[in-house]
Amino acid sequence: MADFNKVMLMGNLTRDPEVRYTPSGTAVADLGLAVNRSFKGTDGQLKDETCFVRVTVWSRQAENCAQYLRKGSPVFVEGRLKYDEWEKDGQKQSRLSVVGERVQFLGSPRGASFQDGGGEAPAGGGSALQQGRDEAVAPPPEMASGPEEDEDDLPF
Question: What pTM, to 2 d.p., does this model score?
Answer without folding.
Answer: 0.65
